[in-house]
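$ ./design --mode recover --in tokens.txt
reading tokens...
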């Protein structure tokens, strides 16, 4: 699955960058997030609860930030595991552009899922991923820039689910926010996608 989009935030780029790298801010913004722990400057562990259709699970995952270019962006890669619900693995590119009155956060996420989540149907997964991403950005914008900014429409394209290694995969609910928000945790997306 691929998810591409952007969000305009009424905050300076440096402030958005700091928030995307702050585990406390991310924990408040990510839907279903139970915990986020900063392991080192570029690695985070997270736990999030999510449901996609009839599948409900608690996901544990690890995300690493790569190709850091503060405050312009980075790449996020991660894996998570949701027990019998399945696995998720993915990466996202996040960039921050200065715009009049704030910052545009751009993201491109690619994720693979396996297990029961991959069996619930791509439409349910796509809908859950978009819902989690929207909820994350609404929460994140409320924290970083209390006055909501208009958003650019998000476009999702899908490809057939691909199996993910049993080594674990980051919940998509962790991925989008993490990944998308250049976050260090897209618990929302990974859970949504797997």
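writing sequence...
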């Amino acid at each position: 699955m691929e998810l591409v989009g952007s969000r305009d935030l009424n905050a300076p780029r440096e402030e958005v960058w700091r928030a995307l790298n702050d585990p406390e801010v991310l924990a408040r913004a990510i839907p279903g997030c139970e915990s986020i722990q900063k392991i080192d400057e570029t690695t985070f562990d997270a736990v999030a609860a999510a449901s996609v259709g009839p599948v409900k699970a608690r996901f544990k995952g690890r995300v690493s930030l790569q190709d850091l270019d503060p405050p312009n962006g980075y790449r996020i890669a991660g894996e998570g595991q949701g027990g019998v619900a399945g696995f998720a693995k993915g990466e996202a590119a996040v960039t921050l552009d200065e715009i009049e009155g704030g910052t545009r956060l751009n993201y491109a996420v690619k994720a693979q899922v396996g297990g029961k989540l991959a069996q619930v149907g791509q439409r349910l997964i796509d809908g859950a991923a978009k819902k989690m991403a929207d909820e994350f950005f609404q929460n994140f914008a409320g924290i970083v820039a209390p006055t909501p900014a208009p958003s650019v429409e998000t476009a999702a394209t899908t490809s057939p689910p691909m199996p993910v290694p049993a080594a674990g995969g980051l919940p998509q609910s962790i991925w989008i926010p993490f990944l998308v928000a250049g976050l260090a945790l897209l618990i929302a997306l990974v859970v949504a996608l797997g």
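exit 0
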